[in-house]
Amino acid sequence: MSFWSALSAESRDTFWRSLQALTATRIVISLVLLAYLAFDQKDVASASYHLYTETCMAYLVLAGAFVLASVYVRNHFLMQVVLQIAVDIAVISVLYMAAEASRGSLVILYLFPLAGAAILAPRLLALFSAALVTLFLLTDSLYQVFLGESGMPLTQAGLYGAAFFAIVMVVSRLAARLIRQEELAARHGADLKIQQAINQIIIADVDDGILVVDRDGHIFAGNPAAQHMLGLANGDSGFALSEVPALEPVAHAFSEWQQQVGPATVAGVARAAFVTVKPYRDSGGGDAGTAAWSGRRDLAAHLKLRFARVDTVDEASERCVIFLQDVTAIENQAQELKLASMGRLTASIAHEVRNPLSAIGHATALLAEDLHEPGQARLLKIVGDNVARVNRMVEDILQLSRKVQPNGDPLLLGPFLNDLKAEFDETQGVADDIVWLGNTGAVPVRFDALHLREVLINLLTNALRYASGGVGSIRVYVVTDSAGGMELHVQDDGPGITPDVRAHLFEPFYTTSSKGTGLGLYLARELCLNNAAMLDYEYRFDASGFGVRAATGRFVISFAPPLGARGATSNRKATT
């Protein structure tokens, strides 16, 4: 029984199905034998006619019993095989003895039980069956020679026996090879199921989002983290990322990655892309893609995307994996750590830093009146510049603790931006045509005017530092969605911010300028949040206004919904 116990459950099922097929074939053979008797009775001796008929009928009944046993009695497999093979050999031997002229054709029937034994039984048992058949044929030939009657020649009986042994050996080896292959496939299948179960647990519990898409961006699957980040409901799939306005940032980043790695790259992983997925406010219409996207989200998410291509046999079945990491929490955690240290410093910073700083600044001014040599003036200027920088940092730190409640009066952006532009041009000494004001919107926004002025002055100052200085090199304009949500864009024609810098852009004390404090953009975002708005740096794949249609970066202020649209359905607004 070691032969049977060593098999896997899948292989045992295969053996039972093979035995059922063998028993069904036995019924067909018994019916053919009865038909042969009905149409050609002269080959059967009259004395043996009843024996032949009764044997065929008994064989048919036993064949039916074997079918029922193989279907309903799923145990003692080897015993059933041995019993059936023994019955087959005995029945064929009886028919062989009863026949006269057709003995040569009946010998071929031995191939049926012998082949079945070679496939279903151990090789030793199959060879034993072949030996029994060979001994029977040789004994019958010797008996016919002893009686002096015509029968199968002894040489022919020996050749039949040798052929039976050869067939049993070949079929047994082929069957053993198939069994080994099936066992290997069963083990691989079990390992694959275990690996799939492990992968499902890991994918379900991992914090990073995993999204499986095809080359056109159609979603096939996503883990719970990805569904939460993108606002997908459980089971949302079958639609393309580009079909949903809220998911256009991911779609454009995926398209750009495909262009970077090229079709020949199998598992290319480009550098990370950063996108912002924001709440989308739909007016109630929506297209098919928006209808398929059933998720909802209240807060914007800043996502870090990585891509990988799965190795597939053809392009039609190509699959790509998008890894999503919500870096919003990481950014907030980094800011909290810095602000915790800064909070302990703020209590004593006015007396411990500002007073000595004022004394240094006053002493520097007095020295400047008496020292006129170029080298001394240069050193005094260095001291004065650094005093001013530290003083500005102290002012920014103190301002963090002043959570002034914003003024809730509606603000029209048109007159406000015109006044702000005139003031900025005058204070910065820039030409009137450098800052270009586009559409300013006709609907008032909810934002404190003093807070918005401080935010825009900060953004325009940064833009002026990196812009080319040409006509319209700094652009300020409003974008309105279908539900009336408004965004204020501040964009310049400079080189833009790299994704690496973008990852730390709004962290306090992070700066790429030797003269900056690293608090300007952080304060600007805090003021926006204080007015229920959001400030972010986004990569938009649209006409930039500078004659280029590409992924251009710009600062975007997303205002709170208008007062008259607060009850509207809140979907997500896509940005890139």
TrEMBL record:
<dbReference type="InterPro" id="IPR036890">
    <property type="entry name" value="HATPase_C_sf"/>
</dbReference>
<keyword id="KW-0418">Kinase</keyword>
<dbReference type="Pfam" id="PF00512">
    <property type="entry name" value="HisKA"/>
</dbReference>
<protein>
    <recommendedName>
        <fullName>histidine kinase</fullName>
        <ecNumber>2.7.13.3</ecNumber>
    </recommendedName>
</protein>
<dbReference type="GO" id="GO:0016301">
    <property type="term" value="F:kinase activity"/>
</dbReference>
<dbReference type="InterPro" id="IPR003594">
    <property type="entry name" value="HATPase_dom"/>
</dbReference>
<keyword id="KW-0472">Membrane</keyword>
<dbReference type="Pfam" id="PF13188">
    <property type="entry name" value="PAS_8"/>
</dbReference>
<feature type="transmembrane region" description="Helical">
    <location>
        <begin position="20"/>
        <end position="39"/>
    </location>
</feature>
<dbReference type="Pfam" id="PF25323">
    <property type="entry name" value="6TM_PilS"/>
</dbReference>
<feature type="domain" description="PAS">
    <location>
        <begin position="195"/>
        <end position="236"/>
    </location>
</feature>
<feature type="transmembrane region" description="Helical">
    <location>
        <begin position="106"/>
        <end position="137"/>
    </location>
</feature>
<dbReference type="InterPro" id="IPR003661">
    <property type="entry name" value="HisK_dim/P_dom"/>
</dbReference>
<dbReference type="InterPro" id="IPR036097">
    <property type="entry name" value="HisK_dim/P_sf"/>
</dbReference>
<feature type="transmembrane region" description="Helical">
    <location>
        <begin position="157"/>
        <end position="176"/>
    </location>
</feature>
<feature type="domain" description="Histidine kinase">
    <location>
        <begin position="348"/>
        <end position="527"/>
    </location>
</feature>
<keyword id="KW-0812">Transmembrane</keyword>
<dbReference type="Pfam" id="PF02518">
    <property type="entry name" value="HATPase_c"/>
</dbReference>
<feature type="transmembrane region" description="Helical">
    <location>
        <begin position="77"/>
        <end position="99"/>
    </location>
</feature>
<keyword id="KW-0808">Transferase</keyword>
<dbReference type="InterPro" id="IPR004358">
    <property type="entry name" value="Sig_transdc_His_kin-like_C"/>
</dbReference>
<dbReference type="InterPro" id="IPR005467">
    <property type="entry name" value="His_kinase_dom"/>
</dbReference>
<keyword id="KW-0597">Phosphoprotein</keyword>
<feature type="transmembrane region" description="Helical">
    <location>
        <begin position="51"/>
        <end position="71"/>
    </location>
</feature>
<dbReference type="InterPro" id="IPR035965">
    <property type="entry name" value="PAS-like_dom_sf"/>
</dbReference>
<keyword id="KW-1133">Transmembrane helix</keyword>
<dbReference type="InterPro" id="IPR000014">
    <property type="entry name" value="PAS"/>
</dbReference>
